[in-house]
Structures are given as structure tokens and as C-alpha cells.
Design brief:
138 residues, HIT family, subunit A, 5 strands, binds zinc ion, globular, binds adenosine monophosphate, alpha+beta
């Protein structure tokens, strides 16, 4: 429990939420400002801020719940598709600093765009990034 964290408050029942799923480690409830109605959040009960400080077991639990609820959200919201997303840190658009995943119903002609596409400057640039990331994994 982190002081002042709204998702910790929802976990503890101190703030209301439209819960769709709950187990020992994870809860899922409707996003208050949905991209489309039915948009759900998957939230670990244990407080962490983002993917960087969330342990692997908790990430697995979160993705398992996303996997469980995705077909239910899709059918319940009469959607054609689902986006799964997780924002990590402010520059990514993260507003609530308690790790969570979004399960977002999508419709064939809903007009929403996902991320734009970019290009590498050249092959050298691509190789450099590839090497830089691999080095971090060593
Ligand atoms: P993010 O931008 O990934 O941090 O997403 C946070 C999400 O939490 C946003 O989509 C908000 O609409 C949603 N949200 C904020 N407060 C609440 C709340 N009290 N109950 C449900 N969803 C909330
Ligand atoms: Zn929290």
C-alpha cells in the first residue's frame, strides 16, 4: 500500500470501482474514462509503480488475468478486437503510478489509430540500436 495511491485505495475498498474480476493477487475493474466502454484495467494488489519495479511473478499474474478477461471484455462489449497495453513512466502517458495493464475493446471502424510508424536513419542506426539493447541484456 502506497500512501495516496488511488489504485491501492481501490484494492483496499476505500475507493469505489466497477470490479469485473478479483483473485488473491490481482483485481480488474472498469477504467473511469474508457477509450471505449468496457475498457478494463488489470491491477496487481501489491503496490509497484511500473514494469521496472514490478517483479516477474506479479507481471505473470497480471498478464494471466489480462488473458482471462480479454475474451470476456471483447464479447461483453461486443467488440471486434482488443488492445492490451501498459504505460510505464510519465513520458509513455502513465498517469497512475501503480502498475497496471489496459484491456481495451476495439471496433473495426472506430477510427482510432495505434502508434505511428517510424523509420531508422539507415542500417547502421538500426544495428547500433540492436547492439545497445542487447548489451543491456548481458
Ligand atoms: P495510465 O495512463 O496507463 O496510467 O492509465 C491510468 C488509467 O486509470 C486512465 O485510463 C484513467 O482513466 C484510469 N483511472 C484513473 N482513476 C481511476 C479510478 N478511480 N477508477 C478507474 N479508473 C481510473
Ligand atoms: Zn498503489
Amino acid at each position: 500500500m502506497a500512501e495516496g495511491c488511488i489504485f491501492c485505495k481501490i484494492v483496499k475498498g476505500e475507493l469505489p470501482a466497477y470490479k469485473i474480476y478479483e483473485d488473491e493477487n490481482t483485481i480488474s475493474f472498469l477504467d473511469i474514462f474508457p477509450i471505449h466502454p468496457g475498457h478494463a484495467l488489470v491491477v496487481p494488489k501489491k503496490h509497484s509503480v511500473d514494469i521496472f519495479d514490478t517483479d516477474e511473478e506479479t507481471m505473470k499474474q497480471m498478464i494471466a488475468v489480462a488473458k482471462k478477461i480479454a475474451p470476456a471484455v471483447m464479447k461483453g462489449a461486443n467488440a471486434d478486437a482488443i488492445n492490451i497495453g501498459m504505460n510505464n513512466r510519465e513520458a509513455s502517458g502513465q498517469e497512475v503510478p501503480h502498475a497496471h495493464m489496459h484491456v481495451i475493446p476495439r471496433y473495426s471502424a472506430d477510427g482510432l489509430k495505434t502508434w505511428g510508424k517510424n523509420l531508422y536513419k539507415n542500417d547502421r542506426h538500426k544495428k547500433k540500436l540492436c547492439e545497445a539493447i542487447k548489451k543491456e541484456l548481458e
